[in-house]
Amino acid sequence: MIVIGIDPGLTGACAVVDHLGVRAVFDLPTMPVPGAGPKALVKRKIDGRALCQLLLKHCPASEGSAQVVLEQVHARGDGNALQTQASLLRSLGAIETVLECLKYPIRYVSPQSWKRAYGLGPDKNKALETARSLYPGAQADLKRQKDHNRAEAVLLAHWGRGELA
C-alpha cells in the first residue's frame, strides 16, 4: 500500500511511503500569486499542476490508488493576520482539489492525534529525529533544520500506514 502524508501550507511538504520505505519527500510546490502587490503579506500559492505531476510521478496509476493522510488545519482566532489564515485555507483547498482529481481517498487527522502517537509536541527537532530514526534511508531528504515539515509529512504517512492497514 502506498501512503502519502501531507503537511499542508506554503512551507508544507509531502512524503510518499510504501512497504519498502520512503519513495519520495518533497516540499509542496508553490508559484507566485497573480496580481499580488508589494504590500501583500502572501505572495505565493500552491502550484496544483506541479503537485499533480509530482504525485503521479511517485504514485503511478499502474500501481493502484494511493491513500492520503492530510493534516487537518483550521483558521485560528489567535490574532494571526487574516491574509495568513486565508492563505492556509487556500493551500488546503488546492491540495484537496488535486487529490480529488486524482481520486485519492483522504484521511484527515488532527496534529494532536498523529503527534501523540510519536510523543511529539511543538519541538520541530523531535519530529526530525523521529522521522530519521524510522527511515534512516531518508536522511538525505531530512538533513536540514528547516526540513521539519518534510519530517512531519513522513511521520503522517508512517502513521497512516499503521492506521489504514
Main sheet specs: 5 strands, mixed
CATH superfamily annotation: Ribonuclease H-like superfamily/Ribonuclease H
Mean pLDDT, to the nearest integer, reads 91
**Sheet with most strands: strand arrangement:** 3-2-1-6-7
Number of strands: 7
Helical fraction equals 40-55%
Shape: globular
Give the helix/strand class: alpha/beta
CATH classification, class level: Alpha Beta
Order of helices and strands: EEEEEHEHEHHH
In short:
The chain has 165 residues and is an alpha/beta fold. It contains 5 helices and 7 strands; from the N terminus they run βββββαβαβααα.
What characteristics describe this protein?
5 helices; MOC1-like; 41% helix; two-stranded antiparallel sheet; 165 residues; alpha/beta; nucleic acid binding; RNaseH_sf; Nucleotidyltransferase, domain 5
Please write out the topology.
Elements: E1 3-7, E2 13-18, E3 21-27, E4 30-32, E5 44-46, H1 48-58, E6 67-71, H2 82-101, E7 106-109, H3 111-118, H4 124-134, H5 148-164
Parallel strand pairs: 1-6, 6-7
Antiparallel strand pairs: 1-2, 2-3, 4-5
Structural features, described:
This protein is 41% helix and 20% strand. By secondary structure, it is of the alpha/beta class. It has one domain: 2-Layer Sandwich (Nucleotidyltransferase, domain 5). The chain has a 5-stranded mixed sheet with strand order 3-2-1-6-7. Strands 4-5 form a two-stranded antiparallel sheet. A hairpin with a 5-residue loop joins strand 1 and strand 2. Helix 1 packs across helix 2 and helix 4 packs across helix 5. The longest helix is centred in the middle third of the chain and has 20 residues.
